[in-house]
Amino acid sequence: MESNLEKLSPRKVTVRIGGAAGDGIASVAESLAKACSRSGLYAFAYNSYQSVIRGGHIYMQIRIGGKKVWSQGDFTDFLIALNADTVQRHAKDVTPGGAVIYNKEKIKVDPSTLKAGVTDAGIPSSTIAAKFGKSPVMQNTVALGALCHFINFPFSSIEEVLVSTFARKGDAVVQANVGAAKAGYEFAKENFKLVHFSWEFSDTKRMFMTGNQAIALGALAGGCKFFSAYPMTPASGILHWMAPKGPKYGIVVKQCEDEIAAMNMAVGAGQVGARAMTATSGGGFSLMTEAVGLAAMLETPVVVFNVMRGGPSTGLPTKTEQGDLFQVLGASQGDYPKIIVAPATVEDAFYLTAEAFNLAEIYQCPVLMVSDLLLSEHYETIEDLDFSKVKIDRGQIVSGPTDGKYLRYKITPNGISPRALPGTEGTIYVSGSDEHDEDGTLISDVFTDPVKRKAMMEKRMRKMDTALKSIPAPELFGSKDADLTLIGWGSSYYVIRDAMRSLEKEGIHVNHLHIRYIWPFPAEAFTKMFKSCKNTLIIESNYTGQMERFIRQETGISIPNHLRKYDGEPFGPAEVIQKVKEILSQKQVPELVTR
Amino acid sequence: MPETLDITKYKSNVAPDWCPGCGDFGVLVSLQKACAQLEINPKDVMVVSGIGCSSNLPGFFGSYGMHTLHGRGVAIAQGVKLGNPDLTVIATGGDGDGYGIGIGHFIHAMRRNINITYIVMNNQIYGLTTGQASPTTLFGVQTKSTPEGSIEVPINPIELALVSGATFIARGFSGSQEQLSDLMAKAIQHKGFALLDIFSPCVTYNKVNTYPWFRERVYSLQEESHDVNNWEAAMKIARSPDNRVPTGIFYKTINPTYESLDAGLKFGPPAKQRLGLKSEEAQVLINSFK
To answer: Which domains does chain A have, with CATH numbers?
Structure first.
C-alpha cells in the first residue's frame, strides 16, 4: 500500500470494532454511526460477520467523514477490541496517530506489535463498567465513550443516541449506559491525548439506514401489499423491517415454508391485483426460478429480490459477491419477458424498488431486482429520501369488457394486453401456464398450434421492445474526457465513487459509467457511451466477470481491463486506486479473457 | 338437490379433453352443481390448479382460473386468498400434484387454516405422464415405474390432514355425484381449510382401483352415524383397512382462519387498497431513520 494514503486525515476517521458474535458489536457501531448522522457528519458502516450466533470473529468497520462517505475504507485508525483475538488480528494494522482501545483487565497487548505512533489505550473497563451494571456489554459502552474522546466528539452527541436507543428499556438502563460511556470518556480524557480532528458539526440530522431497509421502505412507498419470504441471509433484513409494518400499513407479510411457496404465493397475490414482492438470496432464488417463468407466462406482475452472497451452493452466507448475474439472467426455462434492475446505492434501493412495482404492472412481467450483501446490509448516512418522487403507475387495468369479448392475452402492437383483475364482472378468464391463446385457452394439449404459439411468443416478447424504449441509459459520472472510465454495476458504485475522489485529488482523471438496468439491456446507449471513453476498467465482485461477459454478449464490446474479487470482502478503494494506476502507467496490453 | 340446477354459467367454452370415462368428469360436474346450489357469482370464484390431467379443470370451469405449476397450486391459491380474501378460492389438482411434489404446501396450508377449498382428484396413478406410481398407489401395485409392484406405503391424505390441522376433511367418489356435489358445497361453505379427497378413477392407467373396485367398497360415513366432531373417531376410520372405503365428512371443526388473525388484512383486501403514502406518513417514516 502506498504510504501517503496511510495517515490520519483531520476530517475523516475509520473505526473498527471487533469481537465475537454476541459481544454486542453492532449496537456499539450503530450508536456511533447514528451519532454522526444526527450531528451533520456522514457514516458508512460495513459488518464483517460469520454464520455463527455466538463466538467466531466479527467486526464492524465505520468510516466517518464531514463529506459523503462512499465506502468502509481500507485502513483502521481506531480499533475497539472486545477480545484478544481482535487484538491479534487487527491491532498491527492500526494507522499511526490512531489507537487500540481495549479492556486492559481482560486483554493483553504487546506494544511492540503496534505501529509507531499508535496509542496503546488500555482501559480498566471491567472496573469502570461494574459501577453501572453487571452486563458485560457495558464494557462496550465504556469503550465507546473512550473513543469519543480520541476522535474529538462532544460527549453530548453519543449521550443523545444512547438515551434514545435505550429509552424503551427504562430510565435505569439509560442512566447506566450514559454513565458507563461518560466514565469511559472521562478516563480517556485524563489518560490519553486527543487527536486533533476538526469536525464541522451541524444540526442537520440525516437518515441512517441499510440497503435492505431502503428496499423495504421503497416497497412500502411503492404500494407493496403482499410480501412473502423464507429467511435467508443477507435478504432477511427486508422481512424483518416489513413484518411489523404489515399491520400498520395493511400489508400481508408472509413467512413461508420455503422459497418455492414464497414465490408462488407472490404470483397468486400479484395475479389478483395486490402489489407483491418476495426476497431471497441466490440459493432461495434457485428454488423460485420455476415460478419466475410462471409469472412471465401468466403475465403476472411480481417483484423478486435476489440479495447476492458468495456462492456457489451455501457458499459464503455472510459475505458479499456479485456472482448471480447469470443465474438471474438465465432463471427459468424458455424465453420470456422480464426486467432486471440492480440498484447501486441505498437511495437507489429505495427509488428503484418503488419503481419496480410500476414496471411489473406496466409490462405485466416479473421484475428481478439484484442486490448484494454489501449494498443490503451496510449502514449509510443519506440525504432525506424524497417520497414525492415515487409515482404509482398500475399500467393498463380494465374495469369490464370494452369492445366485445374480453381477451386477457390480446395480441397488441406493444405486446401489452389490458389486464382485468379477478372479481371483475364480464372479463372471466383462465391464465394458463401452458401456452395459450388470446383468451387463455390452452393450445398445448392434443394439438399444438404452431401459428398461435408463434404469435403468442412474439406478443409476450414484444413487451421487451416496448420496455426498452423507456429503460434509462447507463449513467456517466465525472468529466467526459477522463483518461480512464471505471465501469460498475450494483454495489461496486460505492468503491468506484470513493476511489474516484481520491484519484482526482492526486490529479488522476477517471470517470464512472454505471449500469442499473440490465434487462432489457440498453445496448445502443451503452455502446455510444463506451465509444466516447478513452480507456475502460470494469469492476465487479465475481470470478468470471459476469457483467463484462454480458456486455460483450449484448454489444460485442470487449472491455480491456477488469478488476474482480471473490474473497467475500467488499472492494476497498485502495485496490481500485492501485489498479487504475497500474493501467495508466503501463502501455496498454489488452488482456485475453481466458476464463 | 333439485334436478333443475342450471350449471351453464359455471361451464367454460372449452370441452374437457379427459379420456372418455375419466373420473374427473364427475368431479367437474359436481363442482358446477355445488356452485350453482350455492349461487356463487362466477366472477367471485378463482379456481387454481397445479399440473396434471385433473389440473386442467380450471380451463373447463366458468370462473376465473389459474393453471399453474406442478405441485404449486396450493401455494398460489394461498397467495390469491391473501391477496383478495373476497374471492372464493378453490384449489384443484391430482394426487401426484398435491400429495407428491406439492405435499409441503399442502401441510402448511392446513396448519394455517387458510379459508380455501382443496379438491384432490385422487386416481392413485400419474396419468398425464402415462402411468407411473403416485404417492397414493397402493403397496404392491404394478405400474410403469414399479414393474415388481410398489414397495412404498401410500400416503393417507385423510390421516395427514387430521394431524396437520385441517378443519374440514372429507372424501368423495366421482361415481357418487350427488354425495360429491353436496360435499363440495359444504367444503366451500366451510370457513377454513377444507380438504376434499376424491377417488376419481383413471380408466386408462389404473387397472386396479377401478369403478367396480370402488363400488364394491365405498360407503358413506354419514349413513353410519359417524360423529364428525370426533377427531379420534375420524382418525380411527382413516386408518381402517382397505376392504371398505369410507366416504363423506370425516371431521370438521371451527378454528380461526389465517385471514381473521392476520392484522395485515385489517384494512381490507390488499388488492383493493389505495396505494401510495400520504406526505405525513412519509415524514414519519423518514424520521424513524434519524
So the answer is: 3-191 (3.40.920.10), 209-389 (3.40.50.970), 396-470 (no CATH), 475-585 (3.40.50.920)
User: Is residue A121 left, alpha or beta, with left meaning phi > 0 and alpha meaning psi from -120 to 50?
Assistant: beta
The candidate with the shortest Cα–Cα distance to A21, out of A60, A45, A46, A49, is: A49
Give the CA dihedral A408, A410, A413, A419, nearest 10 degrees.
-10
A221 part of contact set with chain B, CB < 8 Å: yes
User: Can you tell me the distance from the alpha carbon of B127 to that of B133, in angstroms, rounded to the nearest whole number?
Assistant: 9
Mutation target vs A (from B8, B84, B90, B111; most A CBs, 10 A cutoff): B84
Radius of gyration of chain A (CA): 26
Report the predicted TM-score, pTM, of the whole model to 2 decimal places: 0.96
pLDDT tens digits, residue range B8-22? Answer: 999 999 999 999 999
- Confidence band of A445 (pLDDT split at 50, 70, 90): low
Residues 6+ apart with CB under 8 A from A525: A473, A474
How far from A469 is each of A380, A415, B28, CA to CA, in Å? 33, 13, 46
Interface test with A, best of B67, B260, B283 (most A CBs within 10 A): B67
Q: Do A118 and A102 contact (CB within 8 A), yes or no?
A: no
Q: How distant is the alpha carbon of residue A167 from its chain centre?
A: 29
Q: In chain B, what residues touch A258 (CB-CB under 8 Å)?
A: 104
Residues A167-196: tens digit of each pLDDT? 999 999 999 999 999 999 999 999 999 888
Q: Under CATH, which number does the domain B8-265 receive? A: 3.40.50.970
Q: Are A252 and A268 in contact (CB under 8 A)?
A: no
Query: Are A84 and A21 spatial neighbours (Cβ–Cβ below 8 Å)?
Result: no
Closest CA to A131 of A52, A64, A187: A187
Cell numbers for A487, please give them. Answer: 465501469
Q: In the numeric block, which cell numbers belong to residue B259?
A: 385471514
CB contact under 8 A, B104 and A261: yes
Q: Residue type for A557, please?
A: I
Tens of pLDDT, residues A62-93 = 999 999 999 999 999 999 999 999 999 999 99
Cβ–Cβ contacts within 10 Å for residue A589, how many? Answer: 7
Q: Do A445 and B56 touch (CB under 8 A)?
A: yes
Nearest-Å Rg of the Cα atoms of chain B is 20
Q: What is the pLDDT of residues A503-515, one digit of tens each?
A: 999 999 999 999 9
From CA B160, how far away is CA B264, in angstroms rounded? 29
User: Residue B169 carries which DSSP code?
Assistant: E
Query: Nearest-CA neighbor of A303 among A397, A398, A229?
Result: A229
Among chain B residues, CA nearest to A244: B264
Contacts of residues A521-530 at CB distance under 8 Å and 24 or more positions apart, as own/partner, are A521/A550, A521/A554, A522/A468, A522/A471, A522/A472, A522/A473, A522/A474, A523/A554, A523/A555, A525/A473, A525/A474, A526/A473, A526/A474, A526/A551, A526/A554, A526/A555, A526/A557, A527/A555, A527/A557, A529/A473, A529/A474, A529/A476, A530/A555, A530/A557
Cα–Cα dist B41/B267, whole Å: 24
Residue A563 has pLDDT above 90, yes or no: yes
Phi, psi of A244 (to 5 degrees): -75, -15
Q: Give one DSSP letter per residue of A554-585, joined into a string.
A: HH-PPPSEEEE--SSSPP-HHHHHHHHHHHHH
